[in-house]
Each structure stands twice: as C-alpha cells, then as structure tokens.
Amino acid sequence: MTIESSPPAKEVLEAQRVHWDVNFSRKPDMFGGDASAPALEAVELFKREGKSNLLELGGGQGRDTLFFAHEGFQVTVVDYSQAGVEAISAKAQSAGLRGGITPLHHDVRQPLPFGKNCFDCCYSHMLFCMALTTTELERLSDEVRRVLKPGGLHVYTVRHTGDAHYGTGIHRGEDMYEVGGFIVHFFSAEKIRQLARGCEIVSINGFEEGGLPRKLFRVTLRKKG
C-alpha cells in the first residue's frame, strides 16, 4: 500500500540539484561507462519501429546518451545538473559524436524548450523517480506527450514500491524517501496509469538493477493520435 502525504518543502527538493552536481563532479563515471539494460532494450524497440530522433531526459553523465548516438540516433539530452551536461559534452567530443548529440542544461519542472511533435521517441532512466512531486510529474508527462509525434514512443524507468528502500530513510512527502542524501520518488502501477493520460500503455515490466538490488518498472507508452 502506498503512502501519500503533503509534498515536501521546496528547499528540500532544490537542494538535490547541488547534491547531484557535487557527486557528478567528484565521480566522473558515477554509474559506470556501459549503457544500462533499459537503454539496450529501448534501442531495439526504437529501431524496430524506425524511430531515430530521440529526446533523453536526465542524461546524467551520458552513459546511455553516447550509446544511443553510437547506434545512429540523433539525441537531444537534457539534465538539470550543469556538471552532468558538461560531462556529456566532453565525452561526446572525445568520442567524435558531437554531431549526433545536443546536450542542454534544463530543469524538467519547467516546460520543455521544444515545439510540438518534434521527437520520434523519448527515453529516461530513473529521471521520473527523482525529487519530483506528483503534480510536477503530471506536467512533465503532458510535456513529453506534447513534444512527441503522434505514435511516438515514451520509455522510462522508475523504482517502485516493492523496492527495499521504499519506506526507509527520511520521508520527504508523498511516496518520496531520502536515502544516502538522494531523494527517490517510488512508483506504484496506479501512479504509472495516472501519468499515462493521452497515451496507450504498451507495457509495464519489472526488472532489477544493481547490488541491492534496486527494483524497477520499465514503462513503454505510445502517444495516441
């Protein structure tokens, strides 16, 4: 059963930006250099459907970003950590992929800086389970739907309420808990359905990642119309 309460104080959420910047600056490959398992699966799906123009939300230090570009996708990647954006730019330059990657410093709590029906597909790995309130997640979901072309695919991953860290650490409101300095918004299947308005839910698949292991959902949506 999920726990819902009032949203956390704004200053608590804002502090996460500094926390991510510090960690990205200190750890150049915080999550490793290899592409994540969800990115490997997303590439296969996007290629089968002939998608090529990709928006990545919360690219971190670029491990999935560079993989997508290596696979021939035109990638626009946004992150609210300046350190993360700089890391992606440097890695893209070093790998000779600057032509295939457009990194942008942007806070996804604000409207996405793109026109309507711009992208074939959108991907994010654990961006939706960052320190974002349900209201902010609803707005972001609407924005993703706006910038996707009709029939466009949206693949995202989130830690869910069956994860070992759910309900531990400092409760920060709604289904958010701070563990080790990082705030995580844990998802239920109900929340996924709530955020899917205007889209067909293609699949919700559970998987595990990391040493805990973290328990996640991989969500695939298709924009209607």
Concise summary:
With 225 residues, the chain is an alpha/beta fold. It has helices at 10-26, 37-48, 63-70, 82-94, 134-147, 189-195; strands at residues 53-57, 74-79, 101-105, 119-125, 148-159, 170-171, 176-179, 182-185, 199-209, 214-223. The chain has a single domain (10-223), classed as 3-Layer(aba) Sandwich (Rossmann fold), CATH 3.40.50.150.
Describe this structure in words.
- The protein is an alpha/beta fold and 225 residues long.
- The chain has one domain (10-223): 3-Layer(aba) Sandwich (Rossmann fold), CATH 3.40.50.150.
- The protein is built from 6 helices and 10 strands.
- The chain has helices at residues 10-26, 37-48, 63-70, 82-94, 134-147, 189-195, and strands at 53-57, 74-79, 101-105, 119-125, 148-159, 170-171, 176-179, 182-185, 199-209, 214-223.
- The chain has a 7-stranded mixed sheet, sandwiched between helices.
- A hairpin with a 4-residue loop joins strand 9 (199-209) and strand 10.
- Helix 1 (10-26) runs parallel beside helix 4.
- The longest helix is centred in the N-terminal third of the chain and has 17 residues, at 10-26.
- It is globular.
- The N and C termini lie far apart (34 Å).
- The mean pLDDT is 90.
